[in-house]
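Lab channel / #folding
Pinned by the channel admin:
"Please post every new chain as: sequence first, then the structure tokens as a reply. Keep commentary short and put observations after the output so the thread stays searchable."

First post following the new format, from NK:
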Amino acid sequence: MKGWLKTPHQNTKKDVPDTIGVSVVVAVRNESKSMRKCVESILNQKYAQDLVEVFVVDDFSTDDTLNILKEYENRIQLIELKNILPADRAHHANKKQAISYAVEQAKFPLILCGDGDCIYGELWIKSMMQYYGKYAKRFISGPVDYFESNTWWSKFLTMDLVSMIGVTAGSIGQKRPVMASGANMLFEKAVFKEVNGYQGNDHVASGDDVFLMQKIFLRDDKAIGFVKNRKAFAFTHPPESFKEFLNQRIRWTSKSGQLADKQVKGVLILNYLFYLICFISLFVLPWFNWVYLFLGLIVLGLKILIDVLFFKNILAFYNKSHLLKLIFPIELLHIVYVSLMGVLAIFGQYSWKGRQIKK
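Reply from TO:
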């Protein structure tokens, strides 16, 4: 919470001239539903066109994604991994290889990464670049939001995402970064090469964001920044089903054991144990002795008290303060799902973009 509050709020200035070139990189697989809107949103940015190049790297898509991208071949640089990697890589998660290859081809000093299922406002590039111009951070994480929906399920997912962005910004503000989003991140091409890119963790299916951030952080603890600017949002749709949600969260959680910063690992372990104690005290031990229920309620009450203060500020930034009234049921559901994620992230496997990823 302290880190979030001391992160400066940025306003995009439309009259500031664009002076720095940027290479936008989007690695995609089976994104035919959103591909046109994503590409159009990037091509329609309010940033000097001669200072932007767009790489879209197709990762062995099996739907209509590649055909859609070929419609834009005169405006983007299309890279097909099937023409570069061996055929047996079609069953592996290749996002790190996609980004690495695009970085090698990039002509500009800054790399701005997005996702194929995201749509970006017209001031996205300008907002991220103005932050870089002011603070010169070597790795910058940007905010992400879901498109608005009125279902209770989407509200839970929104609160979950908001909490993760809050932790991302807050931990960066406290110089102890633990999260970043590959859907919205900017880094220097030079520092990518200095830390040898994804070397050492390229075998892990996910983590193209946090692994790179942590490698840069361990090299320079002042190099990481967060763009607290509403014009810098990446917008995407929440998981459509509970199964998709589980697969997504297992994928995100499974990379935790590979983090380079041991202190961050320790914090994550303690955090998980706290959730586990809440879960056992509320839903398991009361079956043997109802007195344990009071322990669970006390711990839950303390958690809600702190989370209300935390969410109050972050939801205001998101213009979604009305979601705070759902804090109690969402907290209960959050305790259950986080406790479950810890087990599944260690022992489970997940499916992503039509691939079965083994742990």
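NK: The CA atoms of residues 47 and 126 lie 6 Å apart.
TO: also worth noting, The longest strand covers residues 22-28.
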